[in-house]
Design goal:
This protein is of the alpha/beta class and 277 residues long. 27% of the residues lie in helices and 29% in strands.
Length: 277
């Protein structure tokens, strides 16, 4: 009646507060990050990639964010992805770290192209994934399913975006400097990164009987959520290779014991990832 603006009540995180929490990393992979995974979002003209480092209690560090431009139906952009996923990352202890598992979104009209790309790369733990509310049997990440497709036998996982996003948003609210669930951000990501990461909110709606239900939706004024989707797939990829804390410790210890001693050449990054498309 007063013509004042109104917004449906929702659970959300503000990007401006996260921007203030950026840190100056001493290396691409800080000391606490022991296992690397990646999430890849498929768009019509590019692949969006986020590389994450993980520590005990799923404490996490954003390692790298990049967009690779090219038609996912053609091989060139996938060869660029190979270079990114197979490169050594500079660890704080002067050794090298490598991505251990990656999930790529296969849902949409590029499904056949994604299947064709992942089949020859599955031995390097690059897997196809589908997002499905409710997941498979209520799991945040399903058990592996092998699909017989015209492109070959595809190893595919189903990820519940509702559970994954709820986990990410709950951790974005943690303001501790370190510890289980804490998310760390480097100085190399800027406004566009955090806008995409917080692009959705959890709405509470009621049906005609007054029964409440919740759903994730884009916040008014936001158009892109690739960073959030990539983060969710990187988290799911971690849980594929490290489904329990003991499995995480086993893998992390093995990687640290076998890490090459010669440090890789660190690629300088002089400006923020700005999300330009």
């Amino acid at each position: 009646m007063l013509a004042e603006s109104w917004e449906v009540p929702s659970e959300r995180v503000e990007s401006a507060s996260l921007l203030l929490r950026r840190e100056q990393y001493r290396a691409d992979v800080p000391a606490g990050a022991r296992v690397l995974t990646a999430g890849i979002d498929t768009q019509d003209d590019r692949l969006e990639i986020l590389v994450m480092g993980w520590g005990a209690g799923e404490e996490s560090w954003v390692v790298h964010r990049e967009a690779l431009f090219g038609d996912p139906a053609k091989p060139e952009v996938w060869r660029e992805l190979d270079v990114l996923l197979n490169r050594p990352w500079h660890r704080e202890d002067k050794r090298s770290a490598y991505v251990q598992c990656s999930l790529v979104d296969a849902l949409g009209h590029k499904t056949a192209a994604v299947y064709a790309a992942v089949v020859p790369r599955q031995a390097r733990r690059l897997y196809a994934s589908f997002g499905k509310s409710g997941g498979a049997s209520g799991q945040s990440v399903s058990q592996l399913k092998v699909l017989n497709t015209p492109q070959g036998n595809v190893m595919r996982y189903v990820v519940d975006p509702d559970q994954v996003k709820a986990t990410i948003y709950s951790r974005l609210r943690i303001e501790d400097k370190s510890g289980p669930g804490v998310i760390h951000f480097p100085m190399t990501v800027g406004d566009a990164f955090f806008t995409e990461l917080t692009s959705e909110h959890l709405l509470t709606e009621r049906n005609k009987y007054g029964i409440p239900s919740k759903r994730w939706a884009m916040r008014p004024g936001n158009e892109r959520n690739e960073t959030l989707d990539c983060f969710g797939m990187a988290l799911a990829a971690l849980r594929i290779v490290c489904p329990t804390p003991s499995r995480f410790e086993d893998l992390a210890s093995k990687l640290e014991a076998t890490a090459p001693e010669k440090p890789p050449v660190r690629v300088p990054r002089t400006q923020d990832w700005d999300g330009t498309v």
